[in-house]
From TrEMBL:
Transmembrane segments: none annotated. It comes from Polaribacter aestuariivivens. The lineage of its organism: Bacteria, Pseudomonadati, Bacteroidota, Flavobacteriia, Flavobacteriales. Keywords: Cell outer membrane, Membrane, Signal. Belongs to the SusD family. Coiled coil: none annotated. SUPFAM superfamilies: TPR-like (SSF48452). It is found in: Cell outer membrane. GO terms for cellular component: cell outer membrane. Its main location: membrane. This is RagB/SusD family nutrient uptake outer membrane protein. Residues 115-239 form the SusD-like N-terminal domain.
Amino acid sequence: MNKLFKYGLLTAFIGLGFSCGDSFLEDPAQNSSTTLTSVQLSDAIAVDPTLSSALMSGVYALTFDTGSGGTGGHDDFGMKSYDIFGDMLSGDMALSQSVYGWYRASITEFGATQDFTFGDNRQVWRYYYRIINACNQVIDGLGGTDVTPDNQENKYTMGQAKALRAHSYFYLAQFYQKEYVGSEEILPIYTNSVDENGPKVTAEVIYDLMESDLTEAISLLNGFTRANKTEINQSVAQGIYAYVLGARGTDYQKAYNMATAALAGYPIMSSSEVTGGFNNVATPGWMWGVDLNDEIGLGLVSWWGQMDYYSYSYPAFGDHKAIDSGLYAAIPANDVRKNQFFNDPSRTEHLMPLFKFYDSDRTRYGSSRIVKADYVYMRVAEMYLLAAEYASRINEGNARTMLKAVVSKRVPDASYIDGLSGQALKDEIYLQTRIELWGEGRSYLAMKRNKATVTRGDNHLSFVGVPIPYNDERMAFEIPEGEIQFNPFISTQND
């Protein structure tokens, strides 16, 4: 297999290099003593620079590994786990039927976001801090966060590690702060793999680190040609930076510039592609994703296992995830994206994404229990929509141009956009973002950027018709009980 890595080799790297750093979530006595120190890693990388990229491959494996959030739950399968969490919290994804109970009490009924003892708080926290610690291991092995490696390959690896570290801090900041307030203390910050516990620092400090990491990553990744889309290249780092700047909301011109830089060279998915299953990382409009295969061996415990009716999955057996009925009604009848969803109110599968996300075999219950359909982490339509959103605040002409670039591929005539301005233009960009990126984990981020209030439609199992604003207490996770127990610098939610 000519891939970025052999999965078994990666798990060996993870076991050797990334087993420390979880003491803020678990009893320190449980930590492994068989770890490589940063000095040992640095010495090894000096002898063989290819080791740094191999270690970075191990970090990427965590993004799709089952149990990477520290649980045995069937909702714990890496980065895509939290796409579902966010889409359900935002209300754009409805749990329209529940047989097995995943997501119901903790996410759709807001149990976790109101009670720090719920395990989902711990899962989100541990996953992102585990990625951060793993990136810090790589960065330390390359000389530390303030060092620029001499070797070109190591520069590329350093750029990837810093971009992924920023990406993880970004999601932590989104999930654990109701809205950006620079002076609010929100999270501990770790920039090396030695520190295991620390006090909360302000959002301003966290965002400053993200911006510093991403600025350096973009520079370090200049000229990098990646082996495959699992790796972060310069355009992906620019895309992450565009999200960070938009969430911070202090420099929309720079945010616009970053989004437009990121989109260069990628075509927007066609009308046939957006109803083609979202199952192939080779799709030209995908900027970042994972090529899943037999050797990786994912099965029921995966994003596909929670989302795809045509896999061996929970949706096939009755745990249905559907588009919010109100959002579906807002999609014009002649919009190709309307066809992504099954429309038959007499069936329990009503409004499920049967024609957006599906295994290519299209066999209910799955023709195989091994997931081969791929994961998408970022696609170029996001960058057009982000650019439109940011431009709507500084240059409405550019906003309309960027919005039309996407919408013109979805409806026969997008000329109505030419007449939009002011709040109507902003509202249309937000709506198109929710429609275009439904089920891809972006609705929660867009809701917070747009300071929106969402009212759940009639196909939800709870809180139907209840308006929930973006900064409601129910929209942010709680610092987990384990962190408060084992981190001596944090004793309550308000420390």
